[in-house]
Task: structure prediction
Amino acid sequence: MSTTTANVRSAMAESSATSPEPPRSSSAPSYLVAGVLFYGFVGWLLDQWLGTRFLVAAGVLLGGGLGTYMMIVTLRRQTDAQQHDGTTSRTTSTTMSNKTSNEESE
Result:
């Protein structure tokens, strides 16, 4: 049994090393869904406790707003990080090509 487990673990390690990383932005919409579900549930609990009927709607709206805000913040951070990584690699490649051109001219 342990041989099978070792084989499965090694196969999983190899496949994760060669497979491309999933896009990071796929986690951003989960903030919206989680916010609506969580605050809707909190509103429902408060409705049950207080005997009201409007807090579920308020919770869903609040969760949607906060989830949208978190999604925008997350996507903005990822975009900024990707742009920073892209400019760094372009600067490095430009510097390397300039060094090569200078060496050839000498």
The first helix runs from residue 2 to 18. Helices lie at 2-18, 28-50, 55-105.
